[in-house]
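Hi team,

As requested, here is the filled-out complex form for the AOF run. I kept the field names the same as last time so the parser does not choke. Let me know if anything looks off before we queue the next batch.

— J.
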Amino acid sequence: MAFSAAEQAAMRRALELAATPGVPLGPNPRVGCVLLDEHGATIATGYHRGAGTPHAEADALTNAGDRARGATAVVTLEPCNHHGRTGPCAEALVEAGVRRVVFAEPDPNPEASGGAATLRAAGVDVEAGLFAAESGLLNRFWAFGLAHGRPFVTWKFATTLDGRSAAADGTSRWVSSPAARHDTHRLRALCDVMLVGTNTIAVDDPLLTVRDEHDLPLAHQPLRVVMGERDLDPGRRVFNDDAASLHLRTRDPKFALVELFDLGRRHVFLEGGPTLAAAFLRAGLVDEIVAYVAPMLLGAGRSAVADLGITTIADAFRPRVTDITVLEGDAPNVRLTLAPGED
Ligand code: AOF
Ligand code: ZN
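And here is what came back:
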């Protein structure tokens, strides 16, 4: 595989465009496109702005107009081959007279894939694989959704050294350090659903919005979802501010996730209490665990997770540690990231 220096630089730019802040996470992939002339100079750029809007290639072709003739298109995803919400990009590239297409990764969507073959059949030179891992990372929750028909679930919790998330009297504020709480806000801002149980809303009355270190609201707010059959006081804070919230009246994790998937959501941040966490773990519906461990002992109080039905050590649930990070401060907290499952 031979990619010119100009194509490599263009793919880096296309990846940046794909990740433009403010592009909704939603049900579509993030895609960027750069059109180069025969000298490797940029003719035009484009990117996808969310479901229902033009694809990255179409956006770049519109911006290029007649200048696209003879161009090389550098795209982060294989150009689509289907009539979906918009027309097939493979055909649009051929019609515009594009001579070469370089893309990062093949389209994992069976409804839309096949663009590379269409382009080749039309005599376009096609090369794949440039920065494929980077594009894959950008769209990993989207690809997960395609493969599983539900959003990816990150379960986050904060705990003391002895596995407590609240003291015996129910107080739980400030188990984790300011640095750990700031880190949590950063992770919340990267997901598109914040999920808690009705009990958390009834007891703690949290806002669940993403705020920066000065407590200012950020541009992207995940949908705040409360799950459970119990009726809740409509005066709770989560239902009374500008950001969107939703009460899903079910206790079935699978059902809740499919509902959220149908709403176009692809990454759930599970911040519920021990009961909700146990329900998701028992159902095998946790894909990533983020645990903040604080140098604190309580000796009594609420466990971070409720009964998992495990009675003997041989049956222990043993997720694989993928990252350990120390969050510095007066009382340094440790953030452990873990992956359940075999792979
Ligand atoms: C995008 N943006 O820039 C590219 C996509 O529903 P549609 O018609 O928008 O088609 C969505 C599919 O098109 C998507 O799942 C992916 O397979 C393919 N390529 N999609 O949203 C883009 N290039
Ligand atoms: Zn397309």
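Two things worth flagging: The CA atoms of residues 161 and 295 lie 6 Å apart. The longest strand covers residues 152-159.

Thanks,
J.
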